[in-house]
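Input (structure):
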């Protein structure tokens, strides 16, 4: 079984992935952001590196989903393959930071690759306000994230909401992380676990 956690930069995907993996004894699959050779260059010059970074992410995400499909146990993934194509690449294109030629090339490749893999059995979307995202990004203190533009985050948030509103590929659970402080509140984390179990009861 494949469970994916979706959400904007700083919404808490990695933390919740770790906590749920430990709680339910699931196998975690983390996003390898620290090993992306384009990240630092991208945040310093988004227009120059937008296509490169999206192709890198698409390749890594596709390989992750292929690997997950071979597991017999339950795997929980930090970010889904759909977010790059439905949120990040369109946001760059909308902002004029990715050319139409590159965007169409990328979208064509995503369509082909996504047709070869199965959607997650459950998608957990972490909904977050911009101030909450900014606070988390500042708290974790990654140097390459210090230059993230506010309009970039706002554009991502808007596209996330559009995508989730039309998501029909499988079961969906929306968690408002402004309301549920799962990292610091055992009660809030317990509530999220209960919501997940209620969703999964229909999958077995």
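Output (sequence):
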């Amino acid at each position: 079984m494949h469970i994916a956690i979706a959400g904007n930069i700083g919404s808490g995907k990695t933390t919740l992935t770790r906590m749920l993996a430990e709680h339910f004894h699931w196998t975690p699959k983390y996003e390898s952001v620290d090993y992306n050779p384009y990240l630092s260059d991208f945040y310093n010059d988004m227009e120059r590196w937008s296509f490169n970074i999206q192709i890198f992410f698409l390749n890594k995400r596709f390989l992750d989903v292929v690997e997950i499909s071979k597991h017999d146990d339950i795997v929980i993934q930090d970010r889904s393959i759909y977010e790059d194509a439905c949120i990040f690449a369109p946001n760059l294109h909308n902002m004029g930071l990715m050319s139409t030629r590159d965007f169409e090339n990328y979208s064509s490749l995503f369509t082909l690759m996504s047709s070869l893999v199965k959607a997650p059995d459950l998608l957990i979307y972490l909904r977050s306000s911009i101030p909450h995202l900014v606070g988390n990004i500042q708290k974790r203190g990654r140097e390459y994230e210090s230059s993230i533009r506010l309009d970039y985050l706002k554009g991502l948030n808007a596209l996330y909401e559009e995508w989730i509103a039309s998501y029909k590929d499988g079961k969906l659970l929306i968690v408002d992380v402004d309301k549920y402080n799962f990292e610091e509140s055992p009660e809030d984390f317990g509530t999220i676990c209960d919501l997940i179990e209620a969703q999964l009861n229909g999958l077995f």
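Notes: The beta strands are 2-7, 27-29, 75-78, 122-127, 171-176. The chain has one domain: 2-200.
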